[in-house]
Amino acid sequence: MYKPIIEVKGLSIENVNQVNEKCPRYKEIIDLVCEFRSILKSKAITAFNEWIDQASSLNNKY
Fold it and tell me: What is the pTM for the complete model shown?
């Protein structure tokens, strides 16, 4: 599954911040992936429907 950004060798927080500034959609996608991972780990099925709504709205946003 997705490897957290802080665990990627050779990638600094500064690099990530630069990408986030230039591509705000990237940050939103990464945030959604992190949230999805959290939902799976915690088995929070009720949060899944809310996550689906957030992911769908991201698609409609762009």
Answer: 0.68
Contact assessment for residue 25 and residue 6, using Cβ atoms and an 8 Å cutoff: no
Instruction: Give the CA distances from residue 20 to residues 28, 29, 39, 40, 60, in Å, rounded to whole numbers and listed in that order.
Output: 9, 11, 23, 25, 20
Q: Nearest 5°: CA angle at 35, between 59 and 21?
A: 60
Cα–Cα distance measured from residue 39 to residue 27, given in angstroms and rounded to the nearest whole number = 18
Residues 6+ positions from 27 with CB-CB distance below 8 Å:
19, 20
Mean pLDDT of 1-16: 77
